[in-house]
Structures are given as C-alpha cells and as structure tokens.
Design goal:
By secondary structure, the chain is α/β, with parallel strands linked by helices. It is built from 16 helices and 18 strands. The chain has a 7-stranded mixed sheet, sandwiched between helices.
C-alpha cells in the first residue's frame, strides 16, 4: 500500500465491519489519540480511494459517516478538515432511509419564535369555536372559510366570487375532484412532458391517458398543444405554470395567453395547479386571471404556509361547475376538516399566513444562495424563491446511479423517471433544499452532491 507523501492514511483493522465504517472509526480513533488534530486537512475522497485501492463510493460513505458523528467538516473549494469545535450532528440513517431527505418537496420550516407564538395562539383560540367546528360543515366549506379563501387568492391577483370557490382537504383531493368531473376512463389529458408525480398517480388510478407536451424557454409549446388537441381531443390541459415541479420553469404571460387561446378554440378546459405561485415576489398572472371561463384553479397552503395545513382552494369557471365539483368532493372526501379549515381562516384573516409565507420565501432565498455557492456553476436550474433544484447530470453519470450513490451517502434525491410522461427520461434529478433539515445540514448535503457531480461513478464493484 503506497503512503501519502505528506498526509494521513487510516490504519484499517481487520474485522467484520464494512470498510466504510472501518475508515470512519479510524478517523475517530486517530482524533482521540492525537494523530489527527483540529483543523487538519484530510485527503480528498478520490485520492484516498486511489491510495487505499478501493472504490470512491466507499470513501464517500466513510466521510459522510464521519460528518454525521461530528468528526469532520467540508469547506467548498478548500477540502475536508477535522472539526475544531463540536459540529451539529446529522441524524444517522434509520432503516436504510436517508438522514438528509431531499426527495420530498417540502417548504423549509424557518418559523421564528414570534411567528410560532402567533401560530400557537391561533390554535389555542380555536377552543372557543369547538361547538361549531366539531360538526359536519357545508360541502365545499362554510361561508366564512370560503370568504377567507377569496381573501387569500387576492394575493395572487385573482378576484373570484365565493360561489365559485370550494374549500378542499388539500390540492390532491381538489385535482381528483376536477379529473373525475372532466374526464372518464380512456380519455386523454395534456400536461407538461415533465410533470407532478401526483397527477400521474391520479391518471393511472382513473384510467386517464397523459399526453406530455414539449417545453421551451417560455413554457409549454402552444403549437404542440394545438396539435395534441387536434389529434387526441383531450378533456383538459393540466399545468403547473409557476415554478414547475420539478424544473422550476415558469410559463411566460404571452405563452399563458396563447395556451388559453388554443384551449378556447378546441373547447378544452385548463387545470391550473398553482402550488408554488405564491412564492415569487413577482410572476405572470395566473391562467385563471386570463381565462377564468375555462380554468379550474387549485391553490393549496402546503407549499406556502405549512405542509401540515391540508387545505386547498378550488375555483371553478362558474357556479354550476362548482356544484358538480362539490358533488365529486362529497363522494370522495365528504368535506375538508372543519378544524383545519377554521385554523387556515384564522391565520389568513389575522395575517399569520402572510408572515409564514414571507418566512418561507426568505429562507428559500437564503438556501438558494447557499446552493449557488456550493454547486458547480451551470450544474442546475432553479429560481430565487423556489425550494427545489433541477440538476442535469454530467457524463458519465446516469440518473439512477447518481440517486443510488447519493442514497448510499445518506442523501435522498429523486431521479427524473418520477416526473417523465414519456418513456425517455432525461439524465437529471430533483433536489429539495427545504424540509425539516436546517441550513447547515442542507449545506453539508449540497457539498456531498457537489463532490459527486465533480467526480464520476467507478465501474469496478464497491468494496464493503
């Protein structure tokens, strides 16, 4: 075994432990006996793998394990160093699950103490309403809850009548109601060629065929949409026009108007899933503000206020459609939880929801700046207020190999297959920088992703 010219090489003990744990244990032991001192630089992962004659993935797992124990830390552009102070530990992987799960697209949870106090106050004050909110409510929400929904949607530039708005137990339930109202098994619906996996699940359950439409710099290709309307006679166009999940693409205002014109010409409804529309400080108007007569608009609170606040507002083109949607909701979900709806209403009226939205927006922007500092330039696309990234993988990485490699390092990402409507998915992954992880742990995970992007998978089998 060749020695490093001037550096550290672990003394690996024989035993039954996996090799990556042996390396992490060697780091811990050498720190304990003084062979490794605070701020001492460790060899780069790939160099250490070459010196030990083992797979790069094994060393990456070893360094990740040492990170989790609080033994070492990385500084992008400088390398990996022995910690000079106690570092915040990342929880160990539990039953094979990632310890930094960047696969679920959740908003960050940056709620400061004063905001938490207001949220708790809103929950406590519901006790005075228990007699009313413990009962069955009107299908589609009480008049008070619908009025709060109308007030909330004004923040998106939408002016709607309460008889067109329904309160639903989350966006997924709202989409189910719209799909069952508009389409039958065997019919077709158009969507982005990379689209929300929840739509794919609903379509599969209902026997609906999805027609993926190509996109350019302005969004869905309107010419391609027109061609699909002529060929497939779709019942609707589903779109996530602002900060598209997964790519964060946003359809321009001109393109939104062009899509509305095509939809009107062919008599096709539009389903606008505005899950992320409240996050940008400025964005094009909702499609529902351009083509209200043909658009079914869905705006949930999960991505912009709280993931646990399972309330979404569904706006129909007219009161007649709203009545049909209420029947569909009654058949599938009965009603939105009166307790949850009442809490959402209170937070909206008192301004707590606005404070939560602003906190999520600020933290998302801070994490975006972190990603820009850590990840290789040009390796991903995103938007300043988004909390997910779309990473196009460099050769020779494949999407499944990259996702598996990151999982072995304790980081969960999602390969593009989950979003692709067509058979050929791009070599890309989606990474969420929100969720429950704090900013330090997000930064650590991004550093490991950056190291992987700048390396390459090895073809020889990993040593464990």
């Amino acid at each position: 075994m060749t020695k490093l010219p001037a550096g550290w090489l672990p003394k690996l003990k024989k035993g039954n432990a996996p090799l990556y744990l042996s390396i992490a244990n060697a780091i811990a032991e050498d720190i304990a006996v003084g062979l490794l001192s605070a701020e001492q630089r460790l060899p780069p992962q790939r160099k250490l793998a070459d010196m030990l004659g083992i797979d790069f993935t094994t060393v990456a797992r070893a360094y990740s394990e040492a990170h989790r124990r609080g033994l070492i830390d990385s500084v992008i552009g400088r390398g990996t160093f022995v910690c000079g102070r106690r570092r915040v530990r990342i929880p160990r992987m539990i039953e094979g699950r990632p310890n930094v799960d960047m696969s679920m697209n959740m908003a960050p949870e940056p709620y400061p103490e004063e905001l938490m106090t207001l949220m708790q106050k809103g929950v406590a004050e519901l006790a005075g309403q228990l007699k009313d909110i413990m009962r069955y409510q009107d299908f589609g929400g009480s008049a008070n809850d619908r009025a709060a929904g109308v007030l909330w949607l004004r923040r998106r530039g939408l002016s709607v009548d309460s008889d067109r708005l329904l309160v639903t137990p989350g966006a997924q339930c709202a989409l189910l109601a719209v799909l069952t109202t508009l389409a039958v098994s065997g019919s077709a619906i158009c969507c982005e060629e990379l689209t929300y996996p929840g739509l794919q699940s609903l379509a599969a359950q209902l026997g609906i065929r999805l027609i993926g439409l190509p996109m350019d710099g302005e969004g869905i290709d309107a010419v391609a949409f027109a061609a699909a309307c002529a060929q497939y006679a779709p019942k609707a166009l589903y779109c996530n026009p602002t900060l598209l999940n997964p790519t964060t693409a946003t359809i321009s205002e001109d393109r939104r108007r062009a899509l509305v014109d095509v939809a009107r010409h062919y008599g096709v409804a539009i389903i606008e899933d505005d899950a992320y529309g409240f996050l940008p400080r400025s964005s094009p108007p909702p499609i529902a503000a351009i083509g209200a007569d043909i658009t079914f608009y869905v705006a949930g609170l999960a991505k912009c206020v709280s993931a646990g606040l399972r309330v979404a507002y569904l706006v129909a083109p007219d009161a007649q459609y709203a009545s049909r949607l209420a029947s569909a909701l009654r058949a599938t979900t009965v009603m939105a939880s009166p307790i949850t709806s009442a809490l959402a209403t209170r937070w909206i009226r008192e301004g707590t929801a606005d404070l939560a939205l602003n906190a999520i927006r600020r933290e998302s922007m801070a994490r975006q700046k972190l990603a820009a500092r850590i990840l290789p330039a040009g390796s991903y696309v995103s938007k300043p207020e988004a909390f997910h990234l779309w990473i196009s993988l460099p050769e020779p990485w494949g999407r499944k190999a990259f996702a598996a490699h990151m999982r072995s390092s304790g980081i969960g990402v999602v390969a593009s297959d989950a979003f692709s409507v067509s058979a050929q998915a791009p070599e890309a992954v989606r990474v969420c920088i929100g969720g429950i992880a704090d900013r330090e742990n997000v930064g650590h995970a991004l550093q490991l992703i950056a190291e992987a992007l700048q390396g390459a998978p090895l073809v020889r089998p990993a040593v464990v």
